[in-house]
Specification:
β13 and β14 form a beta hairpin. The chain has 2 domains: 210 residues, 3-Layer(aba) Sandwich (D-Maltodextrin-Binding Protein, domain 2), CATH 3.40.190.10; 198 residues, Periplasmic binding protein-like II (D-Maltodextrin-Binding Protein, domain 2), CATH 3.40.190.10. With 423 residues, the chain is α+β, with helices and mostly antiparallel strands. The strands form 5 sheets. It has a 5-stranded mixed sheet with strand order 2-1-3-15-6. A 4-stranded mixed sheet has the order 8-11-7-12. The structure holds alpha-D-glucopyranose (GLC). Alpha-D-glucopyranose binds next to α9 and β15. The site of alpha-D-glucopyranose has 12 residues, from α9 and β15.
Length: 423
């Protein structure tokens, strides 16, 4: 009799588990777990001030599916390291929903850490088209675009106006103004994010792409960096430091220090993300009212921006995958996306917000940003993206400090990237 009892209990447990699983809709996502319940959201700690009230809003209306925010370090490289440690952990990780840099989708998906998502649950067709490409790997959707980004060139409107000059439309104009105009006003010429970290990978990729080159092809299988264009791109950055129109201090700038230098009135030109335009233009900034923003220039005209931003993904081992997906739908919905822009000063992924006249009045750079995002190019896709980025940072930094020439740098990049893609 005992075995009948035991079998009956098993059947009961199985029925409860199964009905929970089906009712949750978890199977529709191809994810495992019991569907609905509390979740954690792990994100880099920078620029998240606006997120707390947004999550409190969710928690008020979803008491059974409360989200807990886990703030990781500000630096993308450190956040990457902590997420990888958590995701590799054989035991259940702490992170259910991950706010990942757009550059990491391929790596995390290829490692089997992200649950494939059902496209019909998310408003993908209302997003700016290039951002959707950063959320897919091997033709499957592994994340949902949340915030986008594109590099812009900030310039001192007041100074160029005094000189009767337009904002630079090519590297030649940028170099000329940085070399000859900036010193007349006691300023440094040009800076970007040149410390060896993810920001330098972005700046290096922009320089290479702007000159018409590429770094990797075929989702990381082919190394394409050995080109005249890549030498020209890296050469532009190295020449700036050598000739002094990029200040040496910029070799240790991240977004924050470079923005501060511009905002304190020390720079004529700055490559940075759009939030820096908002902050440099705000009351209290020494250059408020004196800042303009244009698309990045290239050698002979318009250059190329790298697509930045972040995507929301569900950990394969998420405790409650259905709630994780529902939270992602909330954060990528119209209401939350408007707050991403108005409270976070971050570029939303929803296309309609870029054409809203009231928002354009408040954020006059929106049309420039929209054009830059639409033309922006993704960073190299690779299942080993973390290693690819480390190599790019190290080699390009060596070229900028004069430890190696641009030609030798490109040869070394080709060699080291080929070794990574053979893994
Ligand atoms: C910004 C971008 C992100 C990029 C990072 C580099 O946060 O949105 O995509 O990786 O800057 O520092």
């Amino acid at each position: 009799m005992r075995w009948i009892h035991a079998a009956g209990r098993c059947l009961l447990v199985l029925t409860v588990v199964l009905s929970g699983y089906m009712a949750s809709g978890a199977s529709a996502d191809g994810t495992h777990g019991t569907g609905r319940g509390p979740v954690t959201l792990a994100t880099a700690g920078d620029l998240t001030g606006y997120l707390r009230p947004l999550l409190q809003g969710w928690n008020r209306t979803h008491p059974g599916e409360k989200v807990t925010l886990v703030e990781l370090p500000d630096s993308p490289d450190e956040t990457h390291a902590q997420m990888v440690t958590d995701l590799r952990d054989g035991d259940r990780g702490r992170f259910d929903v991950l706010n990942i840099d757009v550059a990491w989708t391929s790596e995390f998906a290829a490692a089997g850490w992200l649950a494939p998502l059902d496209r019909s649950r998310f408003p993908l067709s209302s997003f700016l088209p290039p951002v959707v490409g950063t959320a897919t790997y091997d033709n499957k959707l592994y994340a949902v675009p949340y915030v986008t980004n594109a590099g812009l060139l900030l310039y001192r409107k007041d100074i160029l106006a005094k000189e009767g000059l337009p904002p630079p439309r090519s590297w030649a104009e940028l170099e000329h103004d940085a070399k000859t105009i900036a010193p007349k006003y006691g300023l440094d010429g040009y800076a970007g994010q040149f410390l060896p970290y993810e920001g330098l990978t972005v700046n290096a990729a922009e320089a290479v792409y702007s000159a018409g080159g590429t770094i990797l092809g075929n989702e990381g299988e082919r190394v394409t960096v050995n080109s005249r264009a890549a030498r020209e791109g890296i050469g532009f950055l190295a020449r700036g430091v050598r000739e002094g129109w990029i200040p040496k201090a910029a070799l240790s700038y991240t977004e924050q220090e470079s923005k501060q230098a511009f905002q304190d009135g020390h720079l004529l030109f700055l490559r940075n993300w759009p939030y820096s335009y908002v902050e440099a233009s705000a009351k209290g900034s020494a250059v408020a009212g004196k800042v303009g923003a244009v698309p990045l220039p290239g050698p002979a005209g318009r250059g190329a921006s790298v697509l930045g931003g972040s995507n929301l993904a569900v950990n394969t081992r998420a405790r409650h995958p259905d709630s994780a997906a529902r939270l992602i739908a909330y954060l990528t919905g119209e209401h939350a996306q408007r707050l991403v822009l108005t409270r976070g000063a971050l570029p939303p992924v929803r296309a309609d917000l870029y054409q809203d006249p009231a928002l354009i009045r408040r954020f006059p750079y929106l049309p420039t940003l929209r054009a830059s995002v639409l033309a922006a190019l993704p960073r190299p896709k690779s299942p080993h993206y973390g290693q690819v980025s480390l190599v790019v940072q190290a080699v390009v930094h060596d070229a900028m400090t004069g430890r190696t020439t641009p030609s030798a740098a490109v040869r070394r990049l080709a060699r080291e990237l080929a070794a990574i893609s053979r893994q």
